Records
---
Amino acid sequence: MRGAVLTRPASIASRPLEIRDTPVPTPAPGQMLLRVRACGVCRTDLHIVEGELKPLRGNVIPGHQIVGERDGTRYGVTWMAGVDGTCEYCRRGEENLCDSPAFTGYTVDGGYAEYAVVRSDFAIPLPPGLDDLETAPLLCAGVIGFRSLRVAGVQRGERVGLFGFGASAHLALPVLRAWGCHVSVSTRGLSHRKLAESLGADWVGSELDRPPTRLDRAVTFAPSGDVVVAALSSLRKGGVVAINAIHLDRIPQFDYDSLLWGERQIRSVTNVTRADARDFLQLASEIGLRPKVTVFKLEQANEALDALRKGRISGAAVLVM
Ligand SMILES: [Zn+2]
Ligand SMILES: [Zn+2]
């Protein structure tokens, strides 16, 4: 099969992914072989390819938003390639917090290839009505955005603020609209504000602007502690800020009495569960969530990542095999 193999991380400008023929992998018990129909390209892939995420093994095939097929059934595979099922978190039903998880396209080979072997119990059957290309970006940015809404405890009809408006937030907004929520978007950049308006945000402001009414819930998507504090200062008593960012620059000092007192909460969002993925894909199919995509061939995997690095992708990048 053809696959994009990372032998050694390096700057994307040096084309570190080698497109080459490699044996079709053989599934072990509990695994299945998928023919890959499409695979999303994510910023995390760029971090893996460039070595910002420490390499955990050699010769890895990246890609963790796999739409694949086996025996006529289509499956989606996320960043979560597997969990041990035995640690205290798995036993509590919190598999997203597992102590020894496997990650697709990082600790195990991913979907930048014609075939991929995946754990059968981590392949999510796709609901009908979701097209291959449009499903791929839902499997990372979409699912994690959905989990963020859950972590924030969003209820139907509530006032929800999104701080930052990239890949994840712009897929969360239609979900909130489907739930009848009043949505505020605070984001840097005119193009993001325009996109938020066109997707039906009720109020749009700049990065650190405070929405006109107190929020029940807020989700921050920027890697900035200042944004977290801006979100916190927008909450009603009892409100929740969920932080959808793997790293924050820092958390600035803030005033406890006015910002956290009143049972306000700050929570982080870490990975996703299979239930998040299943529930989100079902909802996406019901509400007709259609992300905008830019398609690249597998052979153009380096070009796709380079375009992502340069901010030249309109919507989400997706590889087809
Ligand atoms: Zn991702
Ligand atoms: Zn575990």
Note: The two ends are 10 Å apart (CA to CA).
---
Amino acid sequence: MVMALHEARQYTKTENDAVQCSLCNHRCKINEGGHGICGVRHNEKGTLYAMTYGKISSEAVDPIEKKPLFHYLPGTLSYSLGSVGCNFHCQHCQNWHISRTTLERAHLHNLAPKEGVSRAIESGSASISWTYNEPTIWHEYALDMGTLAHRQGLGTIYVTNGYITKEALRELAPMLGAFRVDLKAFTDDFYKKICGARLQPVLDSCVLARELGMHVETVTLVIPGLNDSMEEQSALIRWVIEHLGPATPMHFSAFHPDYKMTDRDATPVATLEKIYKKAKELGLRFPYLGNVYNHEYENTYCPKCNATLIERKGFSSRIVRLDGQQCTNCGEKIEIVRHVS
Ligand code: SF4
């Protein structure tokens, strides 16, 4: 199946056939014949095209815990799709083979939005995730598929760097259920040097996603020597508690050398455990560790009585003391999405 060129949303035409894209906070000005920073939005004769619409590089049925997403439809499968390109240029990218490739080099297949929804349902998945590469730059496709999926009662998930603009995020709000966002560090310096972006727009989109009613869950990859100081991690946790609420699940994951960042070791588990304990001390209800196989801090504990509510091993999970949103041991209300509304 050959798909026609798909005109982009979220852009304005300027003079001399140039355009300005307002999908992410780079807000690229693109001259005729050019691409944006993400490499997948192309200006042809004054019209901006979404070049990866319907183009799939990766397709899988994953446990939702793999995203990682622990408080949204736990224990279910998520039909997961990725394409190519990224609006960040992270030196430690773990999916660089798809984020840094081009449309010409990649092995892609076509998938219409309606067909994607059918496959999700046939696979027994409770949701669709746009993941593997940055979904912000796949806006039109995710919007079309997500709108259909939402009507069919499926959950809808962005695994994102959070660099989407407010106007684009508002456009997704009627269909998007979960915003699984990376908080890569808590300094603008890190975002500039390591990712080629800025911190504040990411924080702003987290706040807006919550205001728009999405479930927000954060992931921070803790990198030795770059963002692992207790001062920085404490400041990040305090910000989340104050602006997103103490019930926001935060994942602190171990770094492993990858792509262009091979000059340092993996994160010691002891560093992650220290951050977990600090998060608890500061009042965060649900901190988690990631990339540490079989660790007790992957489980969900009741913040009131400390009973184990969900046990996790790798990507498998078992709900043990949770009835709907209630701890069956002490009755505490647990902030967790069990069904799509
Ligand atoms: S999505 Fe972002 S990086 Fe891509 S063209 Fe638009 S503003 Fe530029």
Note: The mean pLDDT is 95.
---
Amino acid sequence: MPSFRLAALALPAVTLAAFAACQEAPARPPREFDGARALEYAAQQVAFGPRVPNTDGHRRQAAWLDSLLRQRADTVIVQAWTHVTAKGDSLALTNLIARFRPDASRRLLFLAHWDTRPYSDGPNAKQKNVPVPGANDGASGVAVLLGVADALKRTPPTIGVDLLFVDGEDYADFGTEANDVLIGSRYYGTHQVPGPKPEYAVLFDMVGDRDLRIAPEGNSLIAAPEIMTMIWKTAKLVGHDNVFVDGQGTSLTDDHMELQKAGIRAVDVVDFDYPYWHTGEDTMDKISAASLGVVGDVAMALVRRGLDGQ
Ligand SMILES: [Zn+2]
């Protein structure tokens, strides 16, 4: 664990002295991620209302994200475009890319979708015509990325880190309207930002469930098994192997697939076992600071471990 030893060396001398007094190095890297703060970031998003393209909540969240990211990242790239759906709707969509050390040649990328679904068609949906509030499906992944941005502003990374917030993931039917979902990730994949590609990418989707249990997603295991092994190993190192469990989860069509098509080793960290998926009950009471904190800890440990020794 050389990178963890480096992290310990970076601590102030007084802390090192305290560790020396205990005659023992800390078993885990420092916890940098603030789960309670991440939960506040999720609550703020839900308070905007559904973040459905072309609605007020969507526009307000875009402005909020833009402003938050500019206060934290070295550079922010905004990709704004109009997507015309198969049904003829013109959607004003926005991807945001917050870059830390934009000139670093070795980079990793974290992404999450920030839009929410316009209707509720999950198997447990009681009312089909209501938009999904998206506390878990939308806000949770964004909240993790924002918590990572906070930690990276406090202690900048030694590698390049891009935080990608994609739009239009959840707009339509995944089976019959395949071109009108995963829109932002497809746009990112075909409109490359300056500089080298990330060495790998991790999508965080539905990571706030109070009852969080993340099994390896099937399409990630096929496309980038070595990245999955590395993430699960990292989760174990930070003491979260009770949440990042072994076995195989569901195989999902999600934003990571569009990045894979663009030649990026991209995986999906997702807990698909969520009864409120695509229902009007995907609300704040279903997610927790503890769960966001677990995922945030793993994300930060991935950054601090760096890109060697995968
Ligand atoms: Zn969804």
Note: The first strand starts at residue 75 and ends at 84.
---
Amino acid sequence: MTDFAATKALFQMPDGVIYLDGNSLGPLPKAAPARMDAAMRDEWGELLITGWNKAGWMAQPAKLGDRIARLIGAETGHVVLGDTLSIKVYQALASALEMVPDRRVILSDSGNFPSDLYMAEGLIKTLGKGHELRVVAPEEVEVNITDEVAVLMITEVDYRTGRLHDMARLTRKAHEVGAITVWDLAHTAGATAVDVSGAGADFAVGCTYKYLNGGPGAPAFIYVAPRHADAARPALSGWLGHEAPFAFEASYRAGPGIERMRVGTPPVLAMAALESALDIWDMTTMDAVRARSTQLTELFIDRVEAACPMLELASPRDPAMRGSQVSFRFADGYAAIQALIARGVIGDFRAPDIMRFGFTPLYLDHADVEAAAAIIAEVMQKRLWDAPEYKTRARVT
Ligand SMILES: Cc1ncc(COP(=O)(O)O)c(C=O)c1O
């Protein structure tokens, strides 16, 4: 049994805020500043360059990778941290495409995050081999998995609607036709109970700044299935993925297993903050988090729909079909979200009309959900969003 009151007490939350945006950026673990301070003063400050060995900086990407592996159902020793998620998408896709050299189609869906599609477009141009990025509607992915497809590249949870793909089913179908899968777990890791190993995923990537609470700019992770780990060729052949980085050889030789997906110097300070977040994750299991997240999203939908007929549910109604977020469509959604933020309920807006709310049991409880729903009801019923100050768009929405 997870003590969610105990995990909640380990996060800093400003007074008067109900934070429903952990699906974009998780809050600060209270232990992180001291951990960062120690990484700076005791490690960087005192150990200087010897910190790479004495403080274990060089081993951190794989060590923290193992702690994330537990949360996504990956085998120990097959997840490594580094770079940003966009980079990890590129790496995974490039390696995957090479494994199916006689095919040219990358299949994705319109629910994918744009950066994944942009990275695929860039890679296609760089390769210059005539690959095609085929983007279909989310519900049409399965029927489009044909023997033309080289790689199925899918984000499991739709960033707008929260719609959850069936990873095991789509992976099975992809393998039946000889395709390789790349799963983006940005809205999955720390949000739903996923089993990349059981599903047979070939590659999986994700970020650590959303549900995992690693902080802004925290490093991404990549998983390569054990059966591919020593065969996948890393497209970004940086020195820290080399078999012997400190031999400083003139030519690249890929390192063993997942180590080859490392590129360059790891973000040591960012990983110190992430470590504090993972200490909290060690207090629970994804099954416990998922069960409670379902309770919270069900309660939220129930309360908001009862009070706000002008909001249209954009997320699947069946909790088994959605991640850990709830979205509503509303034409003036941007202004509505700004009015909510002004009243302490932080969600976010995704164009053209999505009001998005993330649910994170580590620091949100039923009382928070009831309180947030009451504020949303007031803002919507009294049209409090209909004021000029809520209608000017900021750079980040
Ligand atoms: C599904 C998904 N993929 C990729 C990205 C891009 O990640 P990054 O900015 O870390 O490269 C995001 C960012 O939110 C995302 O949600």
Note: The chain has a mean pLDDT of 97.
